[in-house]
Amino acid sequence: MLHLCGKKLLGARAPHLICSVRGRAESANRWLLTSVFNPTVSAGRANVKTVVASASRYMSVKSASPATISAAKVQISRSKVSKNELRRIFSLAKPESWRLTGAILLLFVSSSISMAVPFALGKVIDLIYTTDTATMNSNINMVCGILLAIFTIGGICNFGRVYLMNMASQRITRNLREKVFRSIMIQETAFFDHNKTGELVNRLSTDTSVVSACVTTNISDGLRSLIMIGTGVSMMVYLSPILALVSLCVVPPVMIIAVFYGRYIRRMTTKTQDALADATQVAEERIGNIRTVKTFNKEEAEIKKYQEKMATVLDLASRQSLAMGLFYGMTGFSGNAIALIVLYTGGVMVSDNSLTVGSLASFLLYAAYIGVSISGISSFYTELNKGLGASTRLWELMDRQPVIPYSGGLIPPRDASGEIEFKSVSFSYPNRPEHLVLDDMNLYLKPGTVTAIVGSSGSGKTTLSYLLLGLHRPKTGAISLDSFRIEDLNVSWLRGAIGTVSQEPVLFSGTIRDNVLYGAPDGVQVGDDQVFEALKEANAFKFVTSDLPHGLDTFVGERGIMLSGGQKQRIAIARALIKNPQILLLDEATSALDAESEHLVHEALEKIMKGRTVLTIAHRLSTIKNADQIAVLDQGKVAEIGTYDTLMASELGVFRNLIKHQAFQQT
Ligand SMILES: Nc1ncnc2c1ncn2[C@@H]1O[C@H](COP(=O)(O)OP(=O)(O)OP(=O)(O)O)[C@@H](O)[C@H]1O
């Protein structure tokens, strides 16, 4: 991939550059490979120096700090607009080609009609000046009748054009959002450690609509302006070549200024969108955790923080507004200047009879139309650059290949038996590569047995379950399930074989039924009787059917906010059970539930462990005592393993020490 992309992007210089890149950092992150070296994203846009500079900066730190990534991204996005980039953004419009073609045809008709008006008016004026009253009246009646009919057609065409364009725009936005959302969903967990939720939501909501407007309504408006300028100029040349030459001398300097302006706007849009994403991130996180904000009495502090973020956005937007104001002012002035030049020179020509009054009037109207159209073109150019700025971010997201493949992989012929082995596993989180959470760790789980994992806080217990679920990959060593390496397995199959109940389970807004069925494999029909069965096993049947107002149809609120901690736990247990997994990953709740809830949750957990391979992060003494084996995690390794009695027998053992100092729940 690297070689291919390198060749495409860098041509003959590729091997040298690839080698130097490799030499600089072996662990070049996939983001760089997919985003920077991906020809579809970067070819043409990023010149070789820019890419290598970004790559070096990126690799000079061992891990990808978000600031470095965004610096590299901004540097790339500052480069010139390439044909590829334009081609790519316009390819979004392809599925809507018939709607857009229809809209453009209607646009041609309505614009032609608009552009015939000055010519017709000129003719009417000449008629007034050159014919007798009777002939003039009948001619004017006839011309006005024809014009009314033509204007009606123009109105209908405009309606059709706007409708079709907007429909196309909405559909492109939808397609784009679906693709971006899919792209976000399939990324590996580590991706979300350095890509904030608010930022991603902003890409999904704002950037997509900016990009789709850029290739639809903006194109329509730009095309309209272009047609009007093209026709206007032709008509001006037809009416008076000399006058046309004099009046159009303003255009070249305006064009040159427009190029610089466009680049500036594009850069500013990227920055503004970044700042906006940052503000959205703050808002999203605080609103999502409003209880914590209120508990700590931080409403005012959060409002201030948001205001600061918005001040940055406003500052960037005001710089953008200043540039826009200057540019629009300049183009408006140019339009008026054209009109003035035409009026002056035309007046002289009429006085020496080289131009009729009607032609001068037509010419003036065309000049005014062109003036308006030039400002139309400038706003088209502004929007196009905004769209390109926003699209850079979207391509980065859409082109990113997840480090852990989302599909493919081995699907074993039989259901999992639940034999699990961690062999010399070392692991560190990608954003903290220097901190080895697991270091050459070994652990064997016999099918159908319960293994309790204990260890001090931060010893890597939860990390172990993430690795088993294939959410992260070990740096070295291997984890196997039924003697298949889990990284070779299809992730859906793997996660389908494992039921999980975490310490603080998250439910989704929806009904109890929706939440239990969330655990069922996609496409498998699960009836209410199976849902009830799972609820019974999870000790949740009674409270669902008799305490909740609408039974299975009761809404649980956002994140299950309408349920108690113990109720949420039991619904989560039912959710884990609905697919009847062979393996269970349990993280016992440390938060104090009331005695009855605690008993019900605990009893449910005991029940569901039977006959399954269970890896439980234990916080209760009884779970530890009943486990077939206890693995004590310490310094990234399994320091001790055995039954409760054997481990307690060792006077100076880590386990015994842990039991002495860590508060395990006694119930
Ligand atoms: N996403 C992450 N990025 C970087 N480091 C992480 C991440 N998640 C956890 N860690 C670090 O990994 C180490 C192990 O964390 P883990 O959550 O597995 O510990 P634990 O044993 O489950 O702790 P506890 O009992 O407190 O829940 C800790 O030092 C933690 O700071």
**Low-pLDDT segments:** 1-79
Query: Radius of gyration, Cα only, in angstroms?
Result: 34 Å
User: Which kinds of small molecule does this entry bind, naming each only once?
Assistant: adenosine-5'-triphosphate
Shape: elongated
Instruction: State the strand order across the main sheet.
Output: 6-7-8-3-9-10
Number of strands: 10
Q: Mean pLDDT, nearest integer?
A: 79
Pfam families: ABC_membrane, ABC_tran
Membrane topology: Multi-pass membrane protein
Subcellular location: Membrane
Keywords: ATP-binding, Membrane, Nucleotide-binding, Transmembrane, Transmembrane helix
Write a structural description.
The chain crosses the membrane at residues 97-120, 140-164, 245-264, 326-351, 363-384. It is found in: Membrane. Keywords: ATP-binding, Membrane, Nucleotide-binding, Transmembrane, Transmembrane helix. It is a multi-pass membrane protein. There is one protein chain. The strands form 2 sheets. A 6-stranded mixed beta sheet has the order 6-7-8-3-9-10, with helices on both faces. The protein has a 4-stranded antiparallel beta sheet with strand order 2-1-4-5, with helices on one face. It has 27 helices and 10 strands. Helix 11 packs antiparallel against helix 14, helix 11 runs antiparallel to helix 17 (357-399) and helix 13 packs antiparallel against helix 16 (299-351). The protein is α/β, with parallel strands linked by helices and 667 residues long. The structure holds adenosine-5'-triphosphate (ATP).
